[in-house]
Amino acid sequence: MERLFKLTDHGTTVQRELIAGLTTFLTMSYILAVNPGMLSETGMPKEAVFTATVIASLVATLVMAFAANLPVALAPGMGLNAFFTYTAVIGLGYSWQVSLTAVFLEGVLFIFLSLFNVREAIVRAIPGNLKRAVAVGIGLFIALIGLEGSGVIVGSPATLVTIGEITSGSALVTIIGLIITIGLYANKIPGAILLGILLTTVVGIPFGVTPLSGDFQLFRAPAAPLFFQFDFSQIATMKFFTIFFTFLFVDIFDTVGTLMGVTTQAGLTDAQGNIPRVKQAFLADAVGTIVGAGLGTSTVTSYVESTAGVAAGGRTGLASVATAALFLVALFLSPVFLLIPQAATAPALVIVGFLMMRAVTNIDFQDLTEGIPAFITIVMMPFAYSIAEGIVYGVLSYVLIKLLTGRLRDVPIITWILSVIFVLRFFLK
């Protein structure tokens, strides 16, 4: 383990890494229920999508572990699966086979972009203050995800969002779980976040939030995935290019943002905020996307919930190995893992959001040309409900304010190129 993952160099232990991997898995295990349910609306068999989701996540996470040695787990991305279902298939009328083809080709292109360091160059072109702002924005974003998913925050036609009914049901369990988790974490109990998830799951039983039934099955054999169900007949059309480009764009910057946030929180970045072994990290999601498309699921990307594992002590790829192992177990014991409700993972996401907010103290707000773009990056992630959009508006505002103040030399060439691509993207929707 020491030779493979350099645990001592990273100030960690095998036990801590395993707990971190379990924590990450528990906070992102909702995808095993959500992704099959969403993609099944396109006509894809839910059981087959479940198998594809698990295998693609497992493969990509193992690549991340051994190639990049980072505590980052991967799975089919939320948002990307919604675009697959509601825009590409239901909205534009493409079959799910054509949409899988777009995902597959995106993964192939990602391989080349990663091998030729294009994606690495994109990361390095993002200014240091914006990188720190990305970590803060992701913290707010995942806290919002947790609170919204558990019903603490709900939609409102009058104020856009408002407090939900917190005296009953899922929201009440989340509040109780948050109190438990805060107490454990503030008292520096080892594995506090993981313990919080497990205890909140138990609390949810009498409230009917943790689902238990009399016909509960411990073991369930996995269904066969959808092997290579591609349709290349539409690849020459403009609509196909539009969905292909959207998959490509969102995945690039979701992954960039997540990697920056996770590695910053873990203290793995260098003085300039650069991510270690970033080429290998990008290869992981490219490989996962290709495998996922070949088996029948939407784009695989790095998961922001990995920050929960980092908060639990994860610093190396061993945490990712533990997460991947649990994906394998979930393939056969899915009823057990699907017991954990969102109300139990929401407190963990709120605590992680707090931990990631601490990066805000390292942002130079005194320099308005740095502080204003950083602020825009931070607020756009939760407000637009997208890591990618936060990066887009952050980079565009950075270039614009440097232009308006005559400080063009502060803007790297690649950042200029990115800003042009971002502007063009608005016209390709």
Task: Give structural notes.
The chain has one domain (2-213, 234-426). It is built from 19 helices and four strands. Helix 5 runs antiparallel to helix 11 and helix 11 (238-266) crosses helix 18 (387-404). It has 429 residues and is mainly alpha-helical.
Features:
429 residues; two-stranded antiparallel ribbon; 3% strand
Q: Pick out the low-confidence regions.
A: none
Mean pLDDT metric:
87
Strand content: under 5%
Number of strands: 4
Put simply, the count of helices is 19
Please give the order of strands in the largest beta sheet: 1-4
Alpha-beta classification: mainly alpha
Please indicate the count of domains. Answer: 1
- What would you call the shape? globular
Distance between the termini: 47 Å
Subunit arrangement of the protein: single chain
Rg from Cα? 21 Å
The helix fraction, in percent, is 55-70%
Can you give me a brief rundown of this structure?
The protein has 19 helices and four strands.
Give the SSE layout:
Elements: H1 2-5, H2 14-28, H3 31-39, H4 46-68, E1 74-76, H5 80-89, H6 96-115, H7 118-125, H8 128-149, E2 153-156, E3 160-163, H9 169-186, H10 192-203, H11 238-266, H12 278-295, E4 300-302, H13 306-311, H14 317-332, H15 334-337, H16 342-357, H17 368-384, H18 387-404, H19 413-426
Antiparallel strand pairs: 1-4, 2-3
Helix pairs in contact: 2-14, 3-4, 4-12, 4-14, 5-11, 6-11, 6-12, 8-11, 8-16, 8-17, 8-18, 9-10, 9-16, 10-16, 11-18, 17-18, 18-19
